[in-house]
Every structure is written in structure tokens, then in C-alpha cells.
């Protein structure tokens, strides 16, 4: 058991070191382009978002991007509240409604069918962004000529311990996203801040083949695009391109969200991401098992504490790098108690996420 733990910790630390190097070596992008030529369609799938959608659409309509090149489409996914009324109050926004189909992938597909933009940009109805968000997104696209862009997402207005925990957890995820794309380790992105050409979406036949998966409008689509264009999927590291949303308010909501994210793992086809997920999950499960074993037999305490210390040093170094970018280092003083929670959380969600159903926007998904 001790040797297994040490092997896993070695693999885990090697992985985190790769992430640190990948994140730090990813250059910050600054757009100098003032003569944009790309037509853009922003898609906002929405279901029961009356509390959030107005702020989101205000942020989108206030973009500095040329209005003649911009189209904004909200796709209503069978909302039962006033989402449509709020969206329809904006004169320069097109509101589409799903009829028979449902779900985020159906909403995005419907939006793309009606989009006139060359570049499709997706975000969520509970997100906000700065006025230069789209400028940097398009500037990066026109500079690199890539097919797909994963861009940063972060929580804001965090107050509780759990919300701050999610900030640190998500800062790590963003670092993993950037490094994974830099070194082609795996497919990582977040649909709240994603862009791809309409042409490449049609080239891979959209969500065909993954349309039966309730989630996966981001990572599973990225896998398809990377197979066709392996060197044309990139991460945009720009503070102006950050999209902000709110963290989950309680553990039940967080569990629902992360089970939804984890449930797509069994549909990955890239062996590298499966191997990485296995190392991370096995490391955290083994640490938790070693803790239980150490309570029974004190002989194992030394191995447990040394492994925990090594892992914590690497995790802290990684978060120091990523939280600096997002101006969230002020929460690193909570790192140690959050580290204990994170080990349990990864082990727990990693296991049940492949079996347990979840609720999303009032829908129960098996």
C-alpha cells in the first residue's frame, strides 16, 4: 500500500509540474487589432435564467466589437419562467425557441443553424464579461487562425468558504486547460467561454455521435475537432477575455454540477485524458484509504503525512501561479483546510459521478 501511494504521488507530482510549466509558459495575449473583419455570432443557451440573463445580455451588448459584425442569439430551452421576456426586451438580440428537442447541445445546434457569423462564440446565461472580451477573442482568432478557442472562466462575488473553495478548484482547472492544450495532453475547456468556426462545427457534423450524452457540448466537441485539426485548438490566456459566473451556493448544488461534468468522462475517446483522470482519482482515493488505515495502524502515519506534504507543496505552487492571473491569491490562506476537503471531494465525486443521476435546470438526468 505504501509503495502504491508513493508511485501515485510521483506520477501526480510529475503531472502537476507539467501543468505548472505549461501554464507559466503560455504567453499572455494582448490584441493590437483595431480593424476586425470576422463576423461573429454569440450563442446564449438559456433555461430558467430570469435572475441572471439580463446582466449577461447587458454585458454582451456593451462589447466594444463592431456592431455590424456582431450577431447575438439567445436560444430558449423550454424555460418556465420569464427568461424569454427578459431576452426579448433587447432590440438587437434574436430569440429562438426549441420546439421538440431539449438540452444545451440541441440549443447550440439550433443556434448555429440560424447563425450568420463565421466565428461562433458560446457563453452561459449566468455569465458576465468585460467590454473587451470579444475583441481579444476575435483578435486571437485572427492572429492564430485556429479552429477552436478555449478561454478562461472564473467565479466572482465569492463569500462563503465553499464558494472560495470553488475559486481555488477552478483556478486549477483553468491551469490544467491551458497546459493540456499547449502540450496536447487532453481535451479541456468550458462552454461558458468557447469559440469555434461555424465551418469546423459542420465539418465534424456538430454533435453527431455524442448527441445522446446529456452533457459534453464543450469537451466532447473539442475531442472531435482536435481529431480533425490536432494543432488548431488553443487556449486564450488573457485577463480581458475572462468570463465570470457565480459559484454554487451549497454542497448539493456543487455536487449536482460536478456529477454532471464527471458523467461525460466515460464518453472520452482520448486515452491520455483517461490516464490523467485515473492518476488523479487513484491518488486521492489512495490518500483517503491510507488515512483510514493509519487510524487503525499508526505505522502508516509517516507515509501518509509525507505523501500529503509533497502533494500539498505541488498543489500550492500550481495554485500560486494560476490564482495570480485571476487576482485570487487572497484566498490561498485557506489552502490547507481546503486541501483536506479537496482530497475527499475528488475521490467522492470521481466515483459517484459515473453512476449517480443528477438534476440540471429542473431536469433529472440518469
Structure explained in plain terms:
The protein has 366 residues and is an alpha/beta fold. It contains twelve helices and twelve strands. The strands form three sheets. It has a seven-stranded mixed beta sheet, with helices on both faces. A three-stranded mixed beta sheet has the order 5-10-7. α3 (83-88) links the parallel β2 and β3. α1 packs across α6 (161-183), α1 runs parallel beside α11 (301-325) and α10 (271-296) packs across α12. It is globular, with a radius of gyration of 21 Å. The model has no long low-confidence stretch (mean pLDDT 91).
Structural descriptors:
about 15% strand; about 375 residues; alpha/beta; 3-stranded mixed beta sheet; 7-stranded mixed beta sheet
Oligomer class? single chain
Poorly predicted residue ranges: none
Number of helices: 12
> Which radius of gyration do the C-alpha atoms yield?
21 Å
Average residue pLDDT: 91
- Number of extended strands: 12
